[in-house]
Amino acid sequence: MHHLRNNIVRIRGVLSMIGRKVPLTPLGVFVAGLLAWFAWRLGWQRQDRVILAIATIGLGWLTLAIVIVGSAAVHLMLGRSCESLAALGGEADEPLATGSRFGRYPLTLLVRIDIEWPETIGVTAQLNLDNGRYLETIRPTSRFAASQVTRRIRISDPLRMAAVTFDRRSAQEITVLPRRHEAGAAPMPWRYDRGDLLAHNEGQRDGDLLDIRRYSPGDPLKQVLWKTFARTGQVLVRTPERSVTPTSMLMAYFVAGEADEASAGIARGMLEDMPRDEKFAFQADGGSECSDSLPEAMRQLVRSAAARNIGGDGLHAFLNRRDMVQSQCLLFVPARPGRWLENTARAIADRGWGCQVIVGVDGVAQPRHRSYGLLVESARPATQPTADELRMLVERLRAAGADVRVVDRNHGEVVEIESPGPSENIADTSNSAA
Questions:
Q1: What's the whole-model pTM score?
Q2: Comparing 155-164, 181-190, 225-234, 284-293, which segment has the lowest mean pLDDT?
Q3: What residues make up the domain containing 359?
Q4: Together in a domain, 164 and 193
Q5: Alpha-carbon separation of residue 363 from 186, 382, 431 (angstroms)
Q6: Do the domain assignments include residue 232?
Q7: 80, 194, 274, 358 — which has fewest CB within 10 A?
């Protein structure tokens, strides 16, 4: 079975390569065969001059389209298609003119040129005609950094009968930053570190039960504010107050993974909005060491897009640095559970304290709906995490001992993630015991 699958993939690759070089699309092959059959069987053998003339004109147009498309492809292959190789910088979700111009062709109106970046995920490229020349514009949907670009150029006639596809590489430095968050009511949790004094000199060592927060699975039921629950329907619990002291340095780490673009934008905004005299140490997945300068921190943040498959691997070493032993850490994590979640939760649990987590989102998606095609089940992909996904990762990180906040990048506000009530947990426990 494995060999059969490899053979099918190999055959598809060969057919795709042949299809790029042959200046006829499947539609063009079908039309050419149909016209040839009409010309021979009905036009020539039955001496139907009208059908013969129509089929001959159609075959002539198809031949002309092949000649025009082929000459345009040769013209672009031999010419300087990409003139601008200057370094570029931009921001995700914003159009970026790369400066690449595709040379003049005398019959521009008779050909159609499409372009894509097959090796760069999340980039949509298009060509705009200007005075007989095509100018390239891209629209990235996520951050990325590239030192060379592969462009796949497809030249076809207006009816898509004939087409030629080829790749072209060019060395060009392109850096696209994540879209930063909007200023809003998002808290700045790194402003305070763990205090070295008691919360009150006459209180308990761990602090008196004066603070209030929402219920999380595992909280003692005796600390639930039942009167508040009866009056408002919100399940709140009492928590001990903590001694805090202002901190002068931000220690931050960015965990890469699926759906991490909103967290990257929030991290960028917080780093850029920091006062110049405030010190920080920042590291992202894929980076080998901490950075204390904003340009290097931005480079690490962008390059972390290539480390999504190893999310959280460097966090344990970061939290156990000598200068991190007595410091509090701010973590930016993705909005969807993945391989990074267990790595991050394990590192937080080993540390035991002082980890504050920000989960960036661009809104919360509704549950997915599945549509069924012919013999194939297709699911419409969600671009945003669902409430269940957020609830699962928030509960996992809180169980490890982290202080977790979900922040909406579009509004800069904290998103409340409702946890299941204590009655639901009791019911689940009784059912599992039964």
A1: 0.71
A2: 181-190
A3: 189-197+243-365+383-433
A4: no
A5: 15, 11, 34
A6: no
A7: 80
Residue 228 within a domain: no
How confident is residue 419, by pLDDT bands cut at 50, 70 and 90? low
Q: Which residue, of 148, 177, 206, is where some domain finishes?
A: 177
* Domains held by the chain: number: 2
Convert the pLDDT of each residue in 423-433 to its tens digit: 444 334 334 43
Please enumerate in sequence order all residues whose Cβ is within 8 A of that of 149, keeping only pairs 6 or more positions apart, or say none: 117, 120, 169, 170, 172, 174
